[in-house]
Recover the amino acids of this structure.
């Protein structure tokens, strides 16, 4: 859900910044918009899909894939958080016509900044439970092997 929200917010920023008029001071193009940080929500959607697949068809490969995607999502969310903080801490003056759009864009960045820790915590939680699931699978496999050996004797 947070991935879809981030993508919609990026689309809103796209519409907002595409409508800027070149003024004396130029247009406001923040670093998060140029890098498409909110568009990285696609990785969160893919990660969620892999988690659902891992719960429906549990295997070591599915759990490992879901865990690796969650780790990637954590890294991307932390990078997005850092870029957003850098964007909000620096502000160049823009022309009077674009000031309202720049101000609204900064408010959207603040909203997204509040969602990045949520994304990190969700990905961390799923990664922890993925590790627990992988360890449990390995223990179950070892237990099954020892039971087969004991039954043979």
């Amino acid at each position: 859900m947070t991935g879809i929200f981030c993508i919609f917010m990026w689309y809103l920023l796209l519409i907002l910044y595409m409508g800027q008029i070149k003024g004396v001071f130029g247009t406001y193009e923040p670093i998060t918009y140029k890098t498409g940080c909110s568009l990285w929500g696609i990785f969160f959607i893919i990660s969620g899909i892999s988690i659902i697949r891992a719960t429906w068809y549990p295997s070591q490969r599915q759990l490992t894939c879901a865990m690796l995607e969650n780790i990637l999502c954590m890294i991307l969310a932390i990078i997005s958080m850092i870029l957003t903080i850098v964007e909000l801490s620096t502000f160049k003056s823009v022309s009077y016509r674009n000031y309202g759009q720049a101000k609204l864009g900064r408010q959207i960045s603040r909203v997204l900044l509040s969602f990045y820790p949520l994304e990190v915590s969700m990905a961390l939680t799923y990664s922890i439970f993925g590790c627990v699931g992988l360890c449990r699978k390995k223990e179950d496999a070892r237990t099954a092997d020892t039971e087969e050996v004991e039954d043979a004797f």
Q: What stands out?
A: The two ends are 53 Å apart (CA to CA).
